[in-house]
Each structure stands twice: as structure tokens, then as C-alpha cells.
Amino acid sequence: MGVLRDMFTALKGGANEVGEAIVDANAIRILEQEIRDAETAIASAKQSLTRMKSSEIKLKREVATIDADVADYEQKAVKALNAGEEALATEVAERIAELESERGEKAGEQATLDAEVQKIHAMIKARERTIAKNKRELDKVRTVQELQRATESVSKNFAATGSSGHRVSKALERVKAKQQGWQDRMEAGEWLEHQEAGDDLDAKLRAKGLGDSANTGASDVLARLKARQAG
Amino acid sequence: MTLDDLAFRLNEYSGDEGTTFDAFVTERGILEVVCSNDDEFPIHVTMTETQLLSVTPLFSTSEVLPDKQGELNDAFLRLSPAVPLSSIGLQGDTYILFGAMALSTRLEVIAHELAVQAENTIDVLEAVEHLLA
Q1: If you count residue pairs, one on A and one on B, with CB atoms under 8 Å apart, how many are there?
Q2: Is the pTM of this model over 0.95?
Q3: HEC profile for chain B?
Q4: Min Cα separation B63/chain A (Å)
Q5: What's the gap between Cα A145 and its chain centre?
Q6: Span A103-155, pLDDT tens digits
Q7: Can you tell me the distance from the alpha carbon of B29 to that of B107, in angstroms, rounded to the nearest whole number?
């Protein structure tokens, strides 16, 4: 059974404080024990696999030796036949038959060993699944415990400041005011950039004698005064 | 990675989105992160063997207007799927906004998630402000 149902019951029942059991301590111990058991089982299964591997190597070597012997005796049997030594050839053939039956037994042993190895691999996989599942379950418990820890200190502050009322609204107002401040500054920055860009343009126009004559020269002033006197 | 490492790296961080962080580990071993886009509701970061948890406590049940808790819970259930990267929950008597990340999450992604969580906090609170005292 998953721990969620356990936790739900506890949390609903008011286990809100850090350190309060949100899951029966036994349930946690069982999950942890199962992880340890599975880890032990996997470790010993891996040792068995190593032993089996050495048996397998030994069997393979023996089969290869038998195969070499059979090939050797076959050649000798043919030679005996060619030499007309029928009785000797028969003796060699009997030896070959013995070797082949021995080889059959070894092959049988190897098949049994293979099946064992497969079983152990499947067992390791199953145990690994148990470990992963239990670790996920424990992580759920740990998550809720951490959420409690992370929430606790602040929620105590809520209790202290909440009495003044509108705590959230006031905080929102402050955040929005700050954000508005940034927005204003950003817009101000953009305005200034435009202005500066505009100044550049005016300067360029003046340089070409096309702008407003912002810097009136002495000659302009004199011309204006003369015009006024004449008028 | 420890929370102290994360605090150090977040304080140094400056991403494309312009959000910066003030982060420190409290005496209780919780990483408190203040995002530049929302300094009123700090995010509390903690970790388990597999995840980083980021929690923003929103308000307590006692701050909900009388008889409005049902409406508020309903609103939160409906809002939750629409809030990117964060979930809304009840921890004890405190409503929280929270997110979870794998411990292997890259710093840029953590920073993005935290910035989004800070933004979500304002959005969510605005949506339910009228139900709070």
C-alpha cells in the first residue's frame, strides 16, 4: 500500500507541525527494511552470478578440450582404417562415443547454468524495482516533511502580522508600486534615448546648414538690430 | 550540490530575463530566495534525496474571509492547471505555491523556475485577493 493514504489521514487529522508523524513510523521502518533486504539480496545474487560465471568458464573450457580430443581421435580412427587396423579403429570409435556422451552431459550442465543465471538476473531486476518503489514512497514522506519545514517559519509570521488585516493586499500594493516604479524608470529611459537620438539628428541637420539656426551668429544679431533701426 | 552552493550561485546569477536573486541559508537549513521581481513573498527552497522543492507560503487559512474558504479552494483547483511550473497546495494551515525540480536541474533552469514562481505568486494572489481579509 502506498504511503499517500496514510499521509492524507495524518495531515487531515492535524499533523501540521514539523516532527509530528505524518506516516506511521512502522510503515517507514518497513519500507527502509525492505530496501535493506533487497540490497542484501542483490549483493548476494551478484556473488552467486560471479561464482556461476567461473563455473561457466570452466565448462566451456572442458567442452573445448573434449571437442579437440574428438577431432584428434577422429583423425586417428581414419588413419587406423586406412592402415586396415579395423579393431583399433573400433576401439577409437568407442572412445569418441564416450567423449561425445560426456560432451552432451556438459552441454546439459551449461544449459541449467544459463537458466539459473537468467533467473538471478530477473530476481535482481525485481529487487531493484522494490528498492526504487520504496525510495519513491520514502521521498513522498520526505517531501511533505520538507514542505512543512519550508512553510513553518513563515506561517508563524502570518499569525503575527495577519491580525492587522489586509496583509496580502498591502504586500501586493507594495510589489505593484515597485513594479510601476521600474516601468516608469524604463519609460523615462526610453524617452531620454529618443531625446538624445533627436538631438543627434538636429546636430547633423545644423552641420549641413539645414537645421533651425540655434546658434545665431553675431552677424545675424547685427542684421536684426539694423533692421529694427531702419524700421 | 548543497543549498549553500545554490545560494552562492544564485547570488552571482544574472540571466537574460533581468531577474536577480538574493539568497541565503537560514539557521534552520532552508534556502530563502528573494527574486528582484517580487521581494514581498520570498521563496523557500529545500531538498530531498531526489528533488529540489521551492515553496512560497501565500497566506494562512485564518486570513480567508469567513465562509469563503470553499470558494477559495474551488478557485485554486481551477487555477492550478493554468499556472505554469507551480502547483498550489495547503500545508497545515498555510496555502502554498510550490514547484519541484530534479536535483540535476541546471542553474539557468532553476533560476527560470524561481523567477516564474515569484511571478506566479503575484498573479495567483491577485486572482483571489477579493476572498482574503
Answers
A1: 104
A2: no
A3: CCHHHHHHHHHHCCCCCCCCEEEEECCCCCEEEEECCEEEEEEEEEECCCEEEEEEEEEEHHHECCCCHHHHHHHHHHHHHHCCCCEEEEECCEEEEEEEEECCCCHHHHHHHHHHHHHHHHHHHHHHHHHEC
A4: 7
A5: 22
A6: 999 999 988 998 999 999 999 999 999 999 999 899 888 888 888 888 887 76
A7: 20
- ipTM topping 0.95: no
Q: Quote the cell numbers at residue B114.
A: 524561481
| Whether the Cβ atoms of residue B39 and residue B122 lie closer than 8 Å to each other | no
Report the pLDDT value the prediction gives residue A74, as an integer from 0 to 100: 94
Q: In this predicted structure, what is the pLDDT of residue A191?
A: 79
Specify the DSSP class assigned to residue A216: -
Amino acid at B9: R
A174 touches chain B (CB under 8 A): yes
Contact flag A146-B98 (C-beta cutoff 8 Å)? no
Least CB–CB distance from A168: residue in B44, B51, B125:
B125
